[in-house]
Amino acid sequence: MGSLAAGRAVAASSRQGQTAALRLQQPADVHILTGRSFANMLQTVFLLSGFMSVIAQTVLLREMLVVFQGNELSVGIMLSQWLLGVAAGSYLAGAGMDRKGFPLFQGLTASFVLTGGLLMAGLVFIRHFRFLVHVFPGEGLSLFHVLWGSVAVFLPLSIVIGAQFVFGVRWAEQKQHAYPASAIYLWEATGYLLGGMIHTFLLLTHVAAFSIGGALFSLGVACLAVLVRSRRAKGIAWAGVLMSVLATVCCAPWAEEWSAARLYAPNTLLAVQNSPHGQHAVAEKDQSQIFLIDGNPVLTFPHPDQTRIEENVHLPLLFHPRPREALLLGSAGLYLPAMLAHPLAQLDYAEADPYFIRFMQKYAPAQYAACLHDPRLTIHYQDGRAFLDKTSRTYDVILLGFHLPATLADNRFFTVEFFRSVRRTLKSGGIVVLTLPGSLVYLNRELAEINRILLATLQSVFPAVQIVPGEENLLIAFNTSRQPETPEAVKKRFYSSALECGFLSEKYLDYRLDPGKYAWLQEQLGPAAAAKKENRDFIPRCLTASLLYWQEMFAPGVNKVYVQSMRFSWLLWLLLLLWLLRGRVGAYGTMFASGGAGMGLHMLSLWSLQLRSGALYLWIGMLNAVFMAGIAAGAFYFRRLAQGGNQVRRLRWLEFLFVGWIVIGWVLFIPGLPWQACFAVSAGSGFFVGLEFPTLAAFLTSEHQAPESRIAGPLYAADVLGGWLAALLLGALWIPTWGFSHTLLLLLGVKGATAWWWMRKASPHGSG
Predict the structure, then answer these.
(1) 94, 124, 768 from 696: Cα distances, Å
(2) 3-state class percentages of the chain: helix first, strand second, coil last, to nearest 5
């Protein structure tokens, strides 16, 4: 979000931008342009500013999602650091410009060059991050790593972006441009939207990250060439553009290959590609090829994990008397050969990412690639949930290849809503199979909670559920009421199947299906299983439990802090109540609430988009751009309301409209509505925040009879603090802990408090 909040810091100056600032001395090295020629230059420069900032942000955000293994909770942490940097850059720039002799023009031009340079520096750092913290590919990273890693990557760049906006506003004021902040904000937001579209639909799958960084650096130098005054400086700048373009063409492929190799070290990287859904890589280690998606190992050749395959495919299929038609969801195709070893008449495999299948066909061993051409196999290039909702086919067996719902994209395949779709698609007597981490020795609190929640979720949908304990617990749900399968029946089917197994045997079946193990597991899960804490789309309890389990494995100290934060999150309701009772919200409290509510709705949109489509990796840049466009539209619309009128009355209506928008957002998040509704929620939320900031600034200016430039600073601080807090806490704590409805209720309560305060305000010149 190039100037996600920074623009609001100075948007208020649009009403009095022609005051004392117009008397400031014009920089000697700036074009002496007036009227239309200056307006055209301003539009071009800040169109490029928004274009560059959104692409730089999106590229780094996607790279961090790969390093941090695609966890949506990290998105809130990352965006909060971006906001923090924008705030710091705007504050530092504003403070510096008050000093005599401040090099305004030099700072402005340098900011464009630094954008591309800091993007490439951030790419180098994040791709070396695992090497720096001594964590191998596939090994988990804690939320603490996400926090300080995103600070190191995002903070320098976002500081420059925040300063760039303030430099531009002051420059426009010196040129006597009408409504300087609004004009720059509008064109920067337009560039932001344009950049989001171009990156999403063009650059994402066709241009490598370092090539994008080199192109942005060249654009930054081109801005310098346009802005400088002297012919000599122009010549040097255009020569710099040519040199940076040549350097990008010659060196970017090498830099891409070198840094990508460091990302997957100590493995030897063989190939890597980006798709709309994630990053695919194949690396070599100890004469084995490892295929990874978003940094997670999914396949190993020529020796895959045969034990896991036989336990998770051959064993559960023996629980159906005669499976003929089967559906596989997930597993990245790992289970395809094993499923085709059974006498199936039809096997459907839903895979949302055709890029990965082509990647597998190109780099996987021939014997594996051959199974993709088996006449019994049909690959549906569609999201698994969308396929289940639309298909008219029914199946004997549906097998889920997801191991742990540690991301929202995976959790959506472990919910009540999903299993209801599964049951509609099963034939009478059909089964659905999934696996969860387990143990035959000890279940810690987090691991037991995962199994409890999923067992309760399945039992709420299916008439019979059987669990087979092991290092990975098998959960088998039946579409009809029946007694659990006996070990004798399973062994009988195994004898008649003629499966060629290297691990599965009669003795192993006796060991795995031992009733004593089942009794022990029931004792471990026992009383809590009766609580019926189902996992739902908008109350992702299993996601929360999986994250705690993940953190406990890789960062137990951080996990203790996280658990305590979740446990005492109810204190936020108490703080809200105290705020209501205090009855002294004021303009700054209103801006804090609006910044938090706007960012909160945007974070909920990010989560809802992933929940419904599983394609956050593709759409995150576009969704951020839409939010920014909404803010710009609000700031632009304010110009039509700025003259005259009762400010308090206007703020009352605006507050109640904001509350109404949260209610509308609540309706738009209801399951069943198309995922495109998430874009409408983000755009509308941005619109209300962008409209409220200049309105509150105008109210405070009138009340205190002070220049808007003096009001904008503390008001902006309240705005950014609200957005920063919402981005940090909603993404990492509130949504996974409370779910969507309770989080929306909190946002509704916060904005309801501010609306209530403005409703009670009797005088347009009362205390703010």
Answers:
(1) 20, 42, 9
(2) 65, 10, 25
Q: What is the residue whose two structure tokens read 């030099």? A: 106
Q: What is the pLDDT of residue 632?
A: 77
306: which 2 tokens? 């045969």
**Which of 541, 591, 548, 530 lies closest to 742 in space, CA to CA?**
541
3-state secondary structure 74-113: HHHHHHHHHHHHHHHHHHHHHHHHCCCCCCHHHHHHHHHH
- Sheet containing 278-285: give its strands across: 268-275, 278-285, 288-293, 296-301
DSSP 227-258: HB-SHHHHHHHHHHHHHHHHHHHHHHHHHHHH
DSSP letter at 451?
A: H
CA–CA gap between residue 267 and residue 360 (Å, rounded) = 18
List the Cα angle 618/623/624 in 5-degree steps.
115
Buried b (16+ CB within 10 A) or exposed e, 548-583: bbbbbbbbeebbeebeeebeebeebeeebeebeeee
Q: Two tokens at 625? A: 């751009």
CA–CA separation, 519 and 514 (whole Å): 9
Rounded to whole angstroms, the Cα distance separating 68 from 71 reads 7
* Residue 40 CB-density burial (10 A; 0-12 exposed, 13-18 middle, 19+ buried): exposed
pLDDT, tens only, 183-204: 676 777 788 888 888 888 888 8
Q: Strands 268-275, 278-285: parallel, antiparallel or unpaired by DSSP? A: antiparallel
Neighbours of 419 (CB within 10 A): 24
- Average the pLDDT over each of 286-290, 535-539, 728-732 and give the range with the smallest value: 728-732
Q: Rounded to an integer, what distance in angstroms lies between the CA atom of residue 635 and that of residue 689? A: 9
CA nearest to 24, candidates 169, 165, 170: 170
Note the Cα 596 to chain centre separation in Å.
Answer: 18
Burial class (CB in 10 A: 0-12, 13-18, 19+), 676: exposed
Give the chain's end-to-end CA distance (angstroms, integer).
30
Spatial separation of the C-alpha atoms in residues 17 and 634, rounded to whole Å: 19
CA 81 – CA 150 distance, rounded (Å): 7
- 663-696 residue pLDDT tens: 998 888 777 678 888 899 999 999 998 888 888 8
306 neighbors 508 (Cβ within 8 angstroms): no
Q: Can you tell me the distance from the alpha carbon of 693 to that of 312, in angstroms, rounded to the nearest whole number?
A: 56
Q: Which amino acid appears at position 651 of this protein?
A: L
Rounded to 5°, angle at Cα 123 from 119 and 124: 120
Task: Say what the pLDDT of residue 718 is.
Answer: 79
Is the model more confident about 632 or about 395? 395
Cα(598)–Cα(721) distance, integer angstroms: 12
Measured CA to CA, the distance from residue 716 to residue 88 in angstroms comes to 11
CA 57 – CA 119 distance, rounded (Å): 8
Q: How far is CA 358 from CA 346, 381, 565, 637, in A?
A: 22, 12, 44, 48
- Which distant-in-sequence residues (6+ apart) come within 8 Å of 483 by Cβ? 464
CA distances from residue 28 to 164, 381, 411 in whole angstroms, order as listed: 19, 60, 59
Query: Comparing 359-368, 486-495, 634-643, which segment has the lowest mean pLDDT?
Result: 634-643
The verdict on whether omega for the bond into residue 266 sits within 30 degrees of 0, i.e. cis, is yes
Query: Closest Cα partner for 172 from 117, 227, 239, 230?
Result: 227
Length of the chain (residues):
768
DSSP 4: T
Q: Which residues contact 132 (CB under 8 A, 6 or more apart)?
A: none
